[in-house]
């Protein structure tokens, strides 16, 4: 099934983290989503019914969720919904599962500070060995002043066509380019 859903709710359980034998990261938690409405007659907010979901994230999203989310926090979830029927000896039920594509804190209820993941780049061994020969006694991965100056901003305050804060680019091609 490829039905998608977006919802907000409360992380109701501590996120559970599992790593498979193949190294796949999986994080799951229960999410409670309660609709609130304003009752004009009582002039107060009233809670409606609570819907319960099992949210599961995989790979990098699972790792980031495990480090970022905690029980009691309000979050936003977008993902693919799946309904699973279950039965035990004396009961039957329906579980609503969401395979998360995106997770984040609900900023209606608080503030958050974003930290980008560092990107790990794998360098083939032959390239690394060649770099060591070219560099001589210098350590692999160290850069010379000439290399560092190539990465430094240009004297006019821009680097690679992107304006620094407070400056606008005069080149239309620069303005239309995406940073990713």
UniProtKB/TrEMBL annotation:
Residues 169-180 have a biased composition (Basic and acidic residues). GO terms for biological process: DNA replication. The keyword Zinc-finger does not apply. InterPro entries: NA-bd_OB-fold, Primosome_PriB/ssb, ssDNA-bd. Transmembrane segments: none annotated. One of its GO terms (molecular function) is single-stranded DNA binding. GO terms for cellular component: nucleoid. Pfam families: SSB (PF00436). Keywords: DNA-binding. This is Single-stranded DNA-binding protein. It comes from Homoserinimonas hongtaonis.
